[in-house]
């Protein structure tokens, strides 16, 4: 499958996900599964589904000296266009790239989108393929979860067994998405390579200290008061700790999405105050330069 940019009748740009015409039950099943799941979800932090196309076309071809009709199936899903593309291309370490306020909003928005499919529907929906490539950003850098081709409806079941690639049974639950979300949060806060540092047997405390040290270095010029500086550090530390909790090997120890958002809400007032302070400092810098 691949994406093309199109234009709606209203003149607005749209994204078109085109499924390749291959003889594969999996290809058809993924299209059907994504379409059915998209019709069930509507949320500010989930990419808006606009429509679909499924057409069959017969084309004459030569086969063993005879002309036969080959049937081609054209399938496509249409979505709102996301001007800033995927989160993947915006990931960077603490020293450059997106500012903290933007990174936090992406974290919080992604959590809100996941809460909707986990807790806000009549039957829970598991995404099962959360990664930076599947989080899209609109022109205002608002994150929206995309690509529901592998997602599954769970209903009242807490877990479900599925066949693994080597024939083993694997248990799938909401905590599968939570683990993926933890990896994403770490990448947002400290860059695309940071998750591997966690895997290199680095103690969690040392990892947190390294991340905070890098952010402090970036903020030394911008945070011109003790309160704003420490508030920023507290916010980063909270997000990293939430992410590390999501990576618990024992899935039962991982937090649920509601608990995660409750923890983020506790630091929200500090986020707003830091944003105001940083904005005032930026404006003063501009006036000074002029």
TrEMBL record:
Pfam families: Pkinase
Keywords: ATP-binding, Kinase, Nucleotide-binding, Serine/threonine-protein kinase, Transferase
Highest taxon in the source lineage: Eukaryota
GO molecular function: ATP binding; protein serine/threonine kinase activity
SUPFAM superfamilies recorded: Protein kinase-like (PK-like)
Keyword Secreted: no
Record's protein name: non-specific serine/threonine protein kinase
Provenance organism: Digitaria exilis
